[in-house]
């Protein structure tokens, strides 16, 4: 497993991060989830990402239980705050000082740790002054409950404003966590250049386009039974179908298979290696419902795609990837 620095900091994280968004506490049994975490550790993954909203806080508990007995100093544990949790009351969401201060304590308790390495704003909160949010982050860092701060799905202007406040407060904003893959490239025009300027890395989620880049979805054919595109209960099925499962895109994905075969890697490994080829990407988030999935995907670490391969991929995909920077956005109002 290779490691990279996270933003302009001295923190190293594994090129592959294990994330438990759609699995722990919901889609897989706790025993299987624990086996997946241990498979990640066996593969050399040291970085683990979760959020309080995943399975309404249960995912954090499952991850914390699975990591019990591990040397804490050898791990990098990330979590997030913003979305509604608990009974979803009027203050159980957003980036207010009240919600953030209560949420970090709950997350630490469920994860079974005194601190998280990275505490992330899961979305931008248009209803709370950014100054209030950043001051809460600063107090959380100074209390030793988080070492670094990050955000998720913030646009370039929001990153710049937050970075300025963080610098004034003496804390480090080191990361952004956007969706990014061969077919979804909305961060490339504005977010990535701004992040490079500010010393912010990308922690990318959905590097395999929620399974669309694995080749398992075929043009003109029904989606496979039991796949994420059939999971209407929290699996993001509608998003997958509307964003990726179009015959022109699936045909192009099928045309990538010879490239993966020539390199001797799987389609999933090709997709993960592609996002890691972007030097502003610190790590690719991968999940798993079976231990063997994480072991296979972790092998993408260290795979180098030369400029010739990257050009061939671009030629195959043509103008199919989404590149509109305006599609990097947070909800206009808080979800309840």
TrEMBL record:
One Pfam family it belongs to: Aldo_ket_red
Composition bias, Polar residues: 326-336
InterPro entries to which the protein is assigned, alphabetical: K_chnl_volt-dep_bsu_KCNAB-rel, NAD(P)_OxRdtase_dom_sf, NADP_OxRdtase_dom
Record keyword NADP present: yes
One Gene Ontology MF term: oxidoreductase activity
SUPFAM superfamilies: NAD(P)-linked oxidoreductase
Leader sequence segment: none
Residue ranges occupied by any NADP-dependent oxidoreductase domain in the UniProt entry: 15-316
Origin superkingdom: Bacteria
Chain intervals for the UniProt region annotation (Disordered): 219-239, 316-336
NADP is among the record's keywords: yes
One GO CC term, this protein: cytosol
Alphabetically ordered keywords of this record: NADP, Oxidoreductase
Similarity annotation: Belongs to the shaker potassium channel beta subunit family.
PANTHER family with a match to the protein in the record: HYPERKINETIC, ISOFORM M
Protein name, UniProt field: Predicted oxidoreductase
UniProt lineage: Bacteria, Bacillati, Actinomycetota, Actinomycetes, Micrococcales
